[in-house]
Amino acid sequence: PDVDLSPEILAGVQDLGFKYCTIIQERCLPHAISGTDVAAKAQTGTGKTAAFLASTLTRFLRAPKPGRRPGTCRALVLAPTRELAIQIHKDASAVGKYSGLNNLVIFGGMDHKGQRSALSRPVDILVGTPGRILDYAGSRHLDLSETETLIIDEADRMLDMGFIPDVRRIVSKLPPAGKRQTMLFSATLEPEILKLVEKWLVNPVALEAEPEKVVGDLIDQQFYAVQDAHKLAL
I need a surface site. Which of 79, 90, 118, 231 has the fewest CB within 10 A? Predict the structure, then answer.
C-alpha cells in the first residue's frame, strides 16, 4: 500500500531500492507518522529501523521547529550496542539524504571533544548507547527536556545487558509520557518488557511482525559427523 511519507523521505527510500513495505513497516508507519506510541515485537531483519526512521523524519519535516537551542535533539534513539547505533545512524543518513536534517551518533570509545562540538548545534535524530547518552546529559552538553520522540530499539537486549537502569535515568530527563511520542521495539515482549511499556508508553498500538518472517527461518543449518583426524581437512 501507499504510505504517507514526505517526498524527501520517499526519494531517500527509493535511492535505497525499497519498493514494497515489510509487514512491520506496513503496520507501524501509519501509527508512527500520526504520533501514536508504538510497542512492536520485531526482530532484526524485519525492516523496523526504516519504519521508525522514515516516520520520524517525515513528522519533523512536516512540523519544522526553528529556534532550537544547541545540545537539544528532537528524537532520541537508544540502542544497546555501538555497532547497532552506528548502523541506525547510517540508515538515518540514507533515508534522510534529501531532508537537510541533522542526525548524529554518539557512543563510548569515540572522541569526546568531537562529539561535544557536534552537540553544539541542534540535532534532529540523535542515536546513541545509554551510557554515553547519560554521560552527556549529566555533563549538560545534552539537554533532553525538549525531545519529542523516544525510540528504544532492541529493548530485550537492553534488559539482558543490564542497561535498563541507565534507560530509566534517561527517560526521567525527557518530557513525560504523553508529552512525547515513544516507540519501543523488542524481539520478545516478556513480562519485564511489558512493565516498561506500561510505564513509558501511553495507549500504545501493539504490533507484531509475522512470525514466519523471523531471520532464523532463513538460515539453512547442516550437520556433519566427522572423525577428529579429518576435521581440519574438512
Answer: 231
d(CA 28, CA 55): 9
Alpha-carbon distance of 73 to 69, in angstroms, equals: 9
The whole-model pTM stands at 0.87
Max alpha carbon distance in the chain (Å)? 71
Residue that is written with C-alpha cell 525538549 in the block: 146
* C-beta separation of 201 from 39 below 8 A: yes
**In whole angstroms, what is the distance from residue 167 CA to residue 94 CA?**
27
pLDDT, tens only, 110-145? 777 777 778 888 999 999 999 999 999 998 889 999
Set of cell numbers at residue 92: 538515518
Q: Where are the alpha helices (DSSP H) in 35-178?
A: 48-62, 82-95, 112-118, 130-138, 155-160, 164-172
